[in-house]
Amino acid sequence: MKEILMKYMEKYTTLKEEEQQAIIEEIVIKEFNKGTYLIKQGDFPTKHCFFVLKGCVRQYHVEVDGKEVTTNFFTEEQAIMLVNLEEAGQASNYSLNCLEDCVLVVADVESEQEVYQQYKGLESMTRRMREAYLIHAQHEYAKFIRSSPEERYKAIIQTRADLLQRVPQHQLASYLGITPESLSRIKKRMQ
């Protein structure tokens, strides 16, 4: 699993290989069973961020009427950094739930500062990772807003086809902003 992380780090860092190796040796990797919540809506935000080495994590919230709205799926080689963006002292607006057995890197935000002091290049690497994530998220959001439901489904087929096999249809439909029945009709039209 650590080789996956090493490969990912190489995209964003100028750290020497021995520094990368030392950082990886300090990283905490944990296994989570399918169904485990990393955080629940209404809980106070965790001081952790996560990186998916294996598995699928769903981000969603429950609206006042009880409807679940899926806002993201995190799979291999994706960072789950959003938990750090909640305002201090305010309950989380969403839940993170493992849809599969998962292997995650678990980083503590407070101890991150100590590691930054030890490895100066790590902070700039983390900044580049976050910038890349934000650029990607903004691009995906803009594309989502201007797309029809059928175009959104086609985009999933092209960019994240694995989700079609990994997540229940009703959750995929929610992620696409449509009903499960609409998703079924789109699938039939495309066949």
UniProtKB/TrEMBL annotation:
One Pfam family cited in the UniProt record for this chain: cNMP_binding
InterPro entries reported for this sequence: cNMP-bd_dom, cNMP-bd_dom_sf, RmlC-like_jellyroll
Entries under SUPFAM superfamilies matching the protein: cAMP-binding domain-like
Organism listed in the record: Niallia alba
Name of the protein in its database record: Crp/Fnr family transcriptional regulator
Location of the Cyclic nucleotide-binding domain: 11-131
Segments traversing the membrane: none
Top-level taxon of origin: Bacteria
Keywords, ordered alphabetically: Activator
